From TrEMBL:
Lineage, highest ranks first: Bacteria, Pseudomonadati, Pseudomonadota, Gammaproteobacteria, Oceanospirillales
Sequence positions that bind NADPH: 12-13, 33, 50, 106, 138, 253, 277, 279
Species whose genome carries this gene: Spartinivicinus marinus
Protein name stated in the entry: Glycerol-3-phosphate dehydrogenase [NAD(P)+]
Xref: InterPro entries: 6-PGluconate_DH-like_C_sf (IPR008927), 6PGD_dom2 (IPR013328), G3P_DH_NAD-dep (IPR006168), G3P_DH_NAD-dep_C (IPR006109), G3P_DH_NAD-dep_N (IPR011128), NAD(P)-bd_dom_sf (IPR036291)
Molecular function GO terms recorded: glycerol-3-phosphate dehydrogenase [NAD(P)+] activity; NAD binding
Record has Ribosomal protein as a keyword: no
GO CC, one annotated term: cytosol
Residues in Glycerol-3-phosphate dehydrogenase NAD-dependent N-terminal domain copies: 5-157
């Protein structure tokens, strides 16, 4: 069944999602701010800023008018940076009322510590809200590499709708009703990708990388469960799956920032070279403050905070991490997990 869909945000992931939707036969409008880029997409069928080597489906329509983009859409994906999220949807409250809206943004609002789904529920209370998250590097999706993601929502009809419009022979969509856990996992893993990038730049071995990823999973799930998430979510695609890909792939924006920091570059130079938003940098200080406030032990977050915000030498922080308190390996027992179901 052909659907009318809008994608707000013409960055790498928004473009990749819009392209899948078009190839699946749906009518898609992609909103972006850049008039020149919109014209290029409409006439040359290429997003030359993010994917100059990958042609887009010729039916994809780019527009710089957000009202026109969402006017007839029954399903709207939002793929803007977290800093621009509320400002993007606020003027569209009337047009988005009652629609199915899915956030693909993996970040946290600075002043409120709200996730994007919570902003959606506040700004557009009549909308059906979901989040899409998982190990999804946009460039691999454009190359049609086999990929899986998670649609999380309390609304079963929305989950089924998203699964039906995105599923194809290289893209699978799994459902989850723990929207908070899926979304928080997507935001938290960006912090650890920066740590992993630093480790890579410093030439650390496989033992170290394995330790970092495993302890990152323990740390992020400990924080998320304290905030109300289901710990089982973190053993799925939106938890450990997303953590692995973002901590292992040089395509990850946050990993690239970590690499630059590990090579001795400043944060400003690292972000300038990236040319895109690395959400982990913004998320780091917010999570550090929140963890301190609720008393959750997060040594990797604290260590990265010392490097990025307090400008401490990386080597000194790494040594202090190894001398820190030794906790138990696994935080949750099977009995405890079952009790939470």
């Amino acid at each position: 069944m052909k659907r009318i869909v809008a994608v707000l945000g013409g960055g790498s992931f928004g473009t990749a999602i819009a392209n899948i939707l078009c190839h699946n036969g749906h009518q898609v409008k992609l909103w972006l701010r850049d008039h020149q880029l919109a014209d290029h997409i409409n006439h040359q069928h290429v997003n030359n800023r993010y994917f100059p080597d990958y042609p887009l489906h010729p039916a994809l329509i780019a527009t710089t008018d957000p009202v026109q983009a969402v006017a007839d859409a029954e399903l709207v994906f939002i793929a803007t940076p977290s800093k621009a999220f509320r400002a993007t949807i606020h003027p569209l409250q009337q047009q988005l009322a009652g629609k199915c809206i899915v956030s693909t943004t993996k970040g946290i609002e600075a002043d409120s510590f709200m996730l994007m789904s919570q902003i959606l529920q506040q700004e557009i209370p009549t909308a059906k809200v979901g989040v899409l998250s998982g190990p999804n590097l946009a460039k691999e999706i454009m190359a049609k590499g086999l990929t899986a993601t998670v649609i999380a929502s309390a609304d079963n009809e929305l989950r089924q709708l998203v699964q039906s419009v995105l599923h194809c022979d290289y893209f699978r969509v799994y459902g989850n009703d723990d929207m908070f856990g899926v979304e928080l996992g997507g935001a938290l893993k960006n912090i650890y990708a920066i740590v992993a990038g630093m480790a890579e730049a410093m030439g650390m071995g496989a033992n170290t990388k394995s330790m970092l990823i495993t302890r990152a999973l323990a740390e992020m799930s400990r924080f998320a469960v304290n905030m109300g998430a289901n710990p089982m979510t973190f053993i799925g695609l939106a938890g450990v799956g997303d953590l692995i890909v973002t901590c292992m792939s040089p395509l990850s924006r946050n990993f690239q920032v970590g690499m630059a920091l590990g090579q001795g570059k400043s944060l400003e130079d690292a972000e300038a070279a990236l040319g895109q938003i690395a959400e982990g940098v913004n998320t780091l200080q917010l999570v550090k403050d929140q963890a301190d406030q609720i008393g959750v032990y997060m040594p990797l977050v604290s260590g990265l905070y010392e490097v990025v915000v307090m400008k401490q030498p990386v080597e000194k922080v790494v040594r202090s991490l190894m001398l820190g308190e030794q906790k138990t390996d696994v935080d949750f027992s099977v009995t405890e997990l079952l009790a939470r179901q």
